[in-house]
Specification:
Blueprint: H1 2-20, E1 27-32, E2 35-41, H2 44-47, H3 54-66, E3 75-80, H4 84-92, E4 97-102, E5 128-130, H5 134-153
Parallel strand pairs: 3-4, 4-5
Antiparallel strand pairs: 1-2, 1-3
Helix pairs in contact: 1-5
Length: 155
């Protein structure tokens, strides 16, 4: 369990970097055991790219590093439950497992809204475990959106 917490702590650090750029604070790390293969954070606003979610960027980086689109022996650690796009990317990359921190009751597609990653209709399923360091991630998200609302009311 300690390895999982260490990796999620790195994902939370990525989320902090995203917040510093004005991005929604979501961070992701892809690891093979204790070896970090890739890490990223949201860059949707920075790149003006709707697909620049932390998970997608980390998956792209891991595929580039390994020279393979198949990431079966790797685990994704992400600070927010993946959305439908990211859940689909996880399945297409054939990730071995995913740990996420905070649940996303509006768009989460590992368990909250829909369990896309476990749907037997698809060829590859990704086992997902939610709630790892959930409080830290949820607080970071809550603070970010509270500060954003405060900025808009004081313009």
């Amino acid at each position: 369990m300690k390895v999982h917490q260490q990796m999620m702590a790195l994902a939370l650090e990525e989320a902090r970097l995203a917040a510093e750029k004005g991005e929604v604070p979501v961070g992701a790390v892809i690891a093979r055991g204790q070896e970090i293969i890739a890490r990223s954070h949201n860059l949707r606003e920075t790149l003006q790219d709707p697909t620049a979610h932390a998970e997608v960027l980390a998956i792209r980086a891991a595929a580039e590093v390994t020279g393979s689109r198949h990431l079966e022996d790797m685990t994704l650690y992400v600070t927010l439950e993946p959305c439908p796009m990211c859940a689909g990317a996880m399945m297409m990359a054939r990730l071995g497992k995913c740990y996420f921190a905070a649940k996303d009751p509006r768009q989460g597609c590992c368990e909250s809204v829909y369990a896309l990653t476990g749907d037997p209709a698809f060829f590859h399923r990704v086992p997902c475990v939610g709630g790892l360091m959930e409080q830290e991630a949820a607080e970071r998200l809550t603070t970010f959106f509270k500060d954003k609302r405060h900025e808009h009311t004081h313009l």
